Here is the input.
Amino acid sequence: MWATAVGVARVRALETERQDALFRDPLAQAFAAAGGLWPSSPAPDDEAARRRRLAVSYSIVIRTKFLDDLLQQASAAGVRQVVLLGAGMDSRAFRIDWPDGTRLFEVDTAAPLDFKASVLRQERAVARCERIAVAVDLREDWPTALAAAGHDPTEPTAWIAEGLLIYLPQDAVELLLARISTQSTAGSRMGLTLGSRGVIERFGPGAAPGSAASMWVSEMPDDPVSWLAGHGWEAESHTLRERAAAYGRPFSSPPQSEERPGGLISAIRR
Here is the structure.
C-alpha cells in the first residue's frame, strides 16, 4: 500500500509548482520521480476516472494544508513531540520551521521508510527538527516501538493520521485511537482525515484494482465529534468544502446533497 504514498507525493509536487500554492514541498518531486510518477503519470482514459482522480488530488491538497496549520498551532501552544502515523512520503520534518527542541517521529513499515531514506540521502535533505524513523507495522505493538525510540507519553504530543484510517477496518480504527489516547497526556493534539460518508460507494465500484480507492474499507462515524469525546478528545469537524473555501480554493460545483459532518478532524486531549 505504501506506493500510494508516492502518488500523494506527486500531488504535492504539482501543488508546489503552482504560483498560488497552499504549501511548498520541495522533496515531493524527488519522491515522485524515484517512484516513477514524475513528470507525469498516465491520464485516466474515461471521464469518470478523470473526475475521481481530480477529486482525490483536490482532497490531498486541502488536507495537507489543514494538517500543516494544526501542527503549527500545536507548536505555538508548546507541543514539542510530533508523531506521524503511516508517515509515507511526508516531508514535514524538512519543510516546516519547527521550534527548537521539537522531536518528530515517523511511524511506518520498513519498506516505505527505506525507500524514503534513499531519496533523502540522494537529495542531501536536512531535517529542521530531530527526526526519528520508527519501523513498525501499525497492526503490531507500535506504542512499545515508539517508546523505545524515545517518545515520552507524559509530555503533550501532536498526532497525525493522514490518509490512513480509510484503509483500516473499524475494529483497527478503534484500537488505533485507543492506543493514541493511552499515549496522550492533557494538551496533546490530534489531526485525522476520515473517509466521508458514502465515499466508498461513490469511488469504490469504478476503482482500478490495486488503486488507493480499491483498498478503502472504513468511513467516518455519523458523529465524529461525539465519537472522539468518548475517547477523551475535544474535537472539531470540518468538511473539505468548508476548508477549501477558507483557503481560497472553493469548490467549483455545488454540493450534490446536504453535507454531513466532515472528514477533517482537529482535536485536543483534555
Observations:
- The chain has a mean pLDDT of 88.
- Strands lie at 81-85, 103-108, 130-135, 157-161, 189-193, 233-238, 264-269.
